[in-house]
Structure formats: structure tokens, C-alpha cells
């Protein structure tokens, strides 16, 4: 089981559920909290921050899961020949990108290519990092599934109706300063946010189940 990933997911989930419960209390008109413009503005800022928390859960959980899977490669001392084609492709492409970026002379470039070939033929243990994933704040359901497909992680997920894409876009608008916290979620009700929250949590939970199975069964290893 991906222990750290479950801890990350549970921690972020508890934060989100607590934060949402506070928003519900504030949005309860019977408490007469939202009777001034200042309070309404503060509540809109809270809703925007809720979107950031949801995206944080998505990226931190998925990144942690992939990092633990990559740690599994290291623990199993996986060589190039011992892993499935998909992992070979990911590792090889990452190495080639490093070579391609090199501005060294031909002699240095030749040595780097030779080392790559030697690592493969000599069975040097593979090493991958989360930087290989190239996420950069762009995780939605489509990109998560694409990364899983590249690793041959088999998942069964509920259709998210582009909810994760909405979360990603609003997160990026806030992060890049395209929208203010007071305006970004002004049209979303607490019920809308609850539906978004439940969809995100369900989708990520299903992805974690798939990553758990992949990790526990060592599905990255080539069958003998």
C-alpha cells in the first residue's frame, strides 16, 4: 500500500471537509453573519481558497503516489530489461531529453550516449523522479489518466464531468493573477462547491486504489 500517499490524501481531505463545514456555518443566513458587504467579500475569498485546497489535494496525492511507485523501482533494483515496455519508454525518453538539452561538444555528447547504452546493457538500476511527470500545475482528469496510461496503471474511475478541469483552470487563474480571489468563485454556491468537492474526492480516491494495486502487485515488472 502507498502509505505516505494515503496519509497525504487523508490529511488534505480532512482539511477540506473542515474548511467546507466552516463555510456552511458562515453561509447559514440564520446566523446573520452575511449582513455586510465586507462579510460577503470575505466569503467569496474563502470559496476561492477552497478551490486552491482542492487542487492541492489532487496534485499532492497524485504526485505522492507516483513518487512512491518510483521508490518501488529503486527498492526492487529494477533494471531496464526487468520492467514493462511502458516504463522502459518513460525512462529512455527522460534520458534522451537530458541528452538533447545538452549544449556540450560532440565528445561529451558521445560519452553520454555511451553511458546510456551501457546502463541498459549492464542492467544498471533504473531511477525516476516526479519531475519526469512534467505536471506543472496542469493536473485534471484527462492528464491524470494519460499519466496512468503511460505507466500501464489500470484504473476504473467515475466520470468527473470536467470538474477537475474546472478546478485546475480556476486554480491557475488565481495562481497567475488572472482573477482575484473575490471574483473567481463568485458564481458558485456552497452546494456547487460541495458537488465539486465530492467529485474530486471520489475521483482521486479511485485513482489511489488503482495506484495501490499497481504498486502492491508490482505491475511495473515484466512477467517472466
List the helices and strands and how they pair.
Layout: H1 3-27, H2 37-75, H3 85-100, H4 106-121, H5 141-151, H6 163-175, H7 181-184, H8 190-216
Helix pairs in contact: 1-2, 1-8, 2-6, 2-8
Task: Give the termini distance in whole angstroms.
Answer: 23 Å
Q: Number of domains in the coordinates?
A: 1
Radius of gyration: 22 Å
Oligomer: single chain
Coarse structural class: mainly alpha
Percent of residues in beta strands: under 5%
Strands, count: 0
Low-confidence stretches: none
General shape: elongated
Would you kindly provide a written description of the structure presented here, covering whatever features stand out?
The protein is an all-alpha fold. The chain has one domain (3-78, 125-216). It is built from 8 helices and no strands. Helix 1 packs antiparallel against helix 8, helix 2 packs across helix 6 (163-175) and helix 2 packs parallel to helix 8 (190-216). The longest helix has 39 residues, at 37-75. The two termini are 23 Å apart.
